[in-house]
Amino acid sequence: MNNLPQVKIGIVAVSRDCFPESLSVNRRKALIKAYEAKYDKADIYECPVCIVESEIHMVEALEDVKKAGCEAICVYLGNFGPEISETLLAKHFDGPAMFVAAAEESQEDLVGGRGDAYCGMLNASYNLKLRNIRAYIPEYPVGTAENCADMINEFVPIARAIVGLKNLKIITFGPRPHNFLACNAPIKQLYNLGVEVQENSELDLFEAYHKLDNDPRIPAKVKEMEEELGEGNMKPTILPKLAQYELTLLDWIEANRGYRKYVAIAGKCWPAFQTQFGFVPCYVNSRLTGMGIPVSCEVDIYGALSEFIGTAVSGDIVTLLDINNTVPEDMYAESVKGKFAYSLNDTFMGFHCGNTNAKKLAACSMKYQMIMARNLPEEVTQGTLEGDIMPGEITFFRLQSTADNILRAYIAHGEVLPVATRSFGGIGVFAIKEMGRFYRHVLIEGNYPHHGAVAFGHFGKALYEVFKYIGVCPCEIGYNQPADVRYRTENPF
Asked: Smallest Cα–Cα separation from 74: which of 8, 30, 129, 24?
């Protein structure tokens, strides 16, 4: 995926001047050694110019990590630490910062070798709040070299998402479809996050598409699609149009990214798209998402934003699905009950017309869009990628600015069950513990739209930290509560 930052974290050790500097020096060396023994050493950079004890040292360290190309920093309290200088590191560094601290090493060295970083972390957190500085502090931020190496590795995908957001442009085409306000949300919060938005007309896209009529690159792109679809290529005559459309989007991205490094797209796909272009864009959307360029349906801007965050955190393909329909009781009785530890209300079907990448489907076929074909000629609805979604762990999530212009989010771990859906589109039987209550008291009560982003794996821990870091109040991050924990809006009787 070439639409994501490759984050390098600068490790800057700090020391209070009344503590031995050697504590921080030796502990930093041990931390670097522990990280490189277990993880990719390209993730980190050891700042060698100084141990930060003063504001002058802070400036020297900042210049060094910037020169080294670090996009994030880790402030490492090798001992108690200088609370002003160390928090100024985070204040003046233009990127995400984390704070971790060294645990004591041996009962045999608690006089000259005691660092008191457990205490120092309290002062660091207090000073960060005084200066309104955001920083990532792990759940338990004090540990051995090996513990802190693990914490830094957990910070890598969080930092990747935060850096990506600061350099993201979301390109949109067309307004939300009429009578479809669900995906219409205030964009002010996007600018608050540092995300740029470029809104375009469908006519602009239509004109750009036709400028590529008979483009010499089309046959090669068709061949790519044929190889990907294999036996699932049920609509081969539509591939040249789809190839032309994919080239249109890729060209548009390069011509319009401006100074932004990363791009996501929120595209319109109905009702006039089919009759004018002569196809539906679902398969192309799935292919771009597979390249690390998320494309949301129905001009869902916050859906595209959520997909991008999920891609950055997981380093993998994501999808956007409707939280769509219930699992019939007879299907549950035959295929779920007694085989998986879920109640009927824990299950639902996640669906969209055909935007899920082929690599995340158990099998795929190029077909026509059945729902749209109820009102339109079938031949203009071709271009969906249909199939049951691959079984396995998933995270269902979304970041949203709701009608009151407040950033909110939800996260839920679950799985796609190995159950045949017997339906159409890109679809799967999903299971999330306590989904019925989560649906009512988070999704409905929180006024979320029907689209949810899906990451393939359990990434809730990192997503939660990303949402907190970018300013979502923890009280506004919903998740599926256990059965014995009542939601605030849940009727106690």
From this structure: 8
Q: What is the pLDDT of residue 85?
A: 94
C-alpha to C-alpha distance for 145 and 321, rounded to whole angstroms: 41
Beta strands in 271-391 (DSSP E): 295-296, 318-325, 347-352, 365-368, 382-388
End-to-end C-alpha distance for the chain, whole angstroms: 50
Q: How confident is the model at residue 453 (pLDDT cuts 50, 70, 90)?
A: very high
d(CA 262, CA 252): 13
pTM: 0.95
**What is the CB neighbour count within 10 angstroms for residue 154?**
16
CA distance 336 to 353: 25
In whole angstroms, what is the distance from residue 308 CA to residue 20 CA? Answer: 44
Closest Cα partner for 391 from 429, 353, 445, 351? 429
What is the CB neighbour count within 10 angstroms for residue 442? 21
CA distances from 300 to 73, 216, 248, 252 (A): 33, 32, 20, 19
Cα Dmax for the chain:
82
Q: What is the average pLDDT score of the chain?
A: 94
Enumerate residues 6+ apart whose C-beta is below 8 A from 60. 49, 50
What confidence tens digit (pLDDT) does each residue in 295-337 have? 998 899 999 999 999 999 999 999 999 999 999 999 999 999 9
From the list 355, 134, 368, the residue with the least C-alpha distance to 266 is 355
Query: One-letter amino acid identity for 439?
Result: Y
The CA distance from 72 to 317, in Å, is 24
**Which is nearest to 397 in space by CA: 355, 354, 446?**
446
The residue with tokens 């005691």 is: 114
φ, ψ (nearest 5 deg) of residue 308: -60, -45
> Does position 182 have pLDDT exceeding 90, yes or no?
no
Residues 6+ apart with CB under 8 A from 122: none
Q: Are strands 426-431 and 407-416 parallel, antiparallel or unpaired?
A: antiparallel
Reported confidence tier of residue 1, pLDDT bands at 50, 70, 90: low
